[in-house]
Design a protein that fits this description.
mainly alpha, two-stranded antiparallel ribbon, globular
């Protein structure tokens, strides 16, 4: 089962997962006022029309730093999980660096595009419309496996997006598994924030999100995507 296997992989890579504490510290102490933390999740203000130029620049800069850290850990995690399937057994540093830059470009560009679209919908007063939210969800889910494809398949961004959409169309069950697992973990994070009052709830829920939820979901995504190579078994399963 992908969920159980992913948890084992998380335990095996717990040191790397804990490196998210860097991001955790950044979220708590350096975060821009336009980004609020609730339920262990980031809530970004889309009201850029009434925001100052300086505020917008600070928001974009802090967000870039977030994605820089996230893309770095994401790249290393995907390479490490792929190694268990004899992918990337020995990877030159330059290749990892190039994959990181490519992934950072994709992550930040995608954020800017979705942020711009959401800001327009916000100004039109339809951002919370069910249909709009559903469309944004479909777009986000459709590109879920782009990082895995770019790194494991060494594809460029446009083709990776196309392959991710095709994988989405052909593997509904895997997407449902991933979506439900991610949804449950986010709900648990929000419950922690609600049950533990005050700043302690924010700190603990955000720590749970950053140190466990985010890396675990990335590992789960990689394991699910690698199901397409069902003849390849992780090394620890062959023992």
């Amino acid at each position: 089962m992908d969920f159980v296997l992913s948890f084992k992989k998380y335990v095996e890579n717990y040191k790397l997962a804990f490196s998210y504490s860097i991001l955790f510290i950044f979220l708590l102490f350096v975060i821009d006022p336009l980004i609020s933390i609730f339920g262990g999740t980031l809530n970004i203000s889309y009201n850029i029309v009434n925001n100052t130029l300086q505020g917008t620049i600070i928001l974009l800069f802090t967000t870039f730093i977030l994605f820089f850290i996230y893309s770095l850990i994401q790249t290393v995690l995907i390479y490490k999980i792929g190694k268990d399937y004899n992918f990337s057994a020995t990877v030159p540093f330059n290749k990892i660096k190039n994959s990181f830059y490519k992934l950072l470009k994709f992550n930040f560009s995608t954020f800017l595009l979705l942020f711009l679209i959401s800001s327009i919908f916000y100004d039109l007063g339809i951002l919370n419309n069910f249909i709009v939210q559903f469309i944004l969800l479909v777009i986000t889910v459709g590109i879920w496996f782009v990082p895995q494809i770019m790194i494991l398949e060494n594809e460029q961004i446009p083709k990776s997006i196309l392959l991710s959409i095709k994988y989405f169309q052909r593997n509904w069950f895997h997407f449902i598994t991933l979506f439900i697992s991610s949804f449950i973990l986010i709900i648990i994070t929000s419950i922690i924030d609600v049950l533990i009052k005050g700043s302690a709830g924010i700190i603990i829920s955000t720590g749970f999100l950053v140190i466990f939820v985010i890396p675990f979901i990335e590992i789960l995504k990689t394991e699910i995507y690698l199901n397409k190579y069902n003849l390849l078994k992780p090394r620890h399963q062959l023992k």
